[in-house]
Specification:
Layout: H1 28-34, E1 43-44, H2 47-50, H3 55-70, H4 72-95, E2 103-106, H5 109-125, E3 134-138, H6 143-153, E4 159-163, H7 172-186, E5 193-199, H8 211-220, E6 225-229, H9 241-244, E7 248-252, E8 264-268, H10 290-294, H11 303-306, H12 308-316, H13 321-344, E9 358-362, H14 372-386, E10 388-389, E11 392-394, E12 413-418, H15 425-440
Parallel strand pairs: 1-10, 3-4, 3-5, 5-6, 6-7
Antiparallel strand pairs: 2-8, 7-8, 9-12, 11-12
Helix pairs in contact: 3-4, 5-6, 7-8, 13-15
InterPro entries: Aminotrans_V_dom, PyrdxlP-dep_Trfase, PyrdxlP-dep_Trfase_major
Protein name: Aminotransferase class V domain-containing protein
Keywords: Pyridoxal phosphate
Amino acid sequence: MDSEDPRSNGDGINHVSKKPKLSSFITESEIREEFSHHSPDVARINNGSFGSCPASIIAAQKGWQLRFLRQPDDFFFNNLQSQILHSRTLIKDIINADHVDEVSIVDNATTAAAIVLQHVGWAFAEGRFHKGDAVVMLHCAFQAVKKSIEAYVTRAGGHVITVHLPFPVSSNEEIVAEFRKGLASAKANGKKVRLAIIDHITSMPCVVIPARELVKICREEGVERVFVDAAHAIGSVHVDVKEIGADFYVSNLHKWFFCPPSVAFLYCRKTPISPDLHHPVVSHEYGNGLAIESAWIGTRDYSSQLVIPQVLEFIKRFEGGIEGIRKRNHDAVVEMAQMLAKAWGTNLGSPPEMCPSMAMIGLPSKLGVFCDDDALKLRTHLRDRFGVEVPIHYQVPRDGEIGSTDGVGCVTGYARISYQVYNTLDDYIRLRNAITQLLHDGVTCQMLQRE
């Protein structure tokens, strides 16, 4: 047996260990131990950006890395593909896909967006889509997705329609109404909508989008294909790809699903006329299907894709499994958000039911968050001065609203807090006290230096 990998029994297969049945669920002290590698001096309430990986999964990953380094040829020829297939099969069951060949494993949601938008760009360039046909996206789409649209779609002749969603937002109906307006604009003058890109959870500002309902509207309105960018979804909201009904659905596994960075799945719904998708990194598996292409893009570290069985073991240590974790995190982040909003005299950016494991809390207007640069300066100051890691969002005032530093202007700055199993009340108290201290000292964003 390999000393570096206790799960190996010498047959070249990474077997899930046969652990004794746990008599109880994971304890708080065990959670602390699993995440003891986190910096003890930082209130890490930004799980949404980079995720978090438990120590036991890091150890499992190291086992795979050492196995490759010990005998790369054996690893490549006898282990890698079968183990990636095993991980894909587990993902298929988690997301309720019909076929394992609907599931590809890629580096992250950015890679998945490039795969889908590359295909759309080719369709425009090759004349299958007509110049001026539209792609619809939400205005708060992730910046990398916007750049992929620019790189693949607009330069090939596609027309982009941006749907501006309201924020703060009070209901799904507001989002649905704006989305219908956007589709109507895209279809004006007889244009065809070739692709709609819908976030399941927007990143900044953070809101759960009624993805299933928007997909249904797309079908009713004749949108050719729908791509759901769900970078934050798996482990944070319930995911059932058949229920959602999109053609393409991507979610990172390193944000809320405890995998090491970076790994994501891309679901491509199998139909009689499924699109011919390809990985943007062309290797010798080109032409063998996206899942096979994605499973080998040259020599690299594939270990983050191979620890999914061990991640599921870790998740099972929590009462209720992934759904239990999701509910625990959602309830906690809402409670922390409401505590902060009360302390600052502000409000949440969306009702609790539209919060995933993250929430937006209005910052006191006296801080003077008047632009994106102010938001970045405040975020940096909170990190460097107070040891608080939290994203800050600048929200452009709506028509008729005026931002002000006198305490009576509209809220233009929001903190996006995350809650993951390792977080504690002290993390959010530190953020609360940091903002309170800045207000007491009369500090505004305009006084802070850009780092």
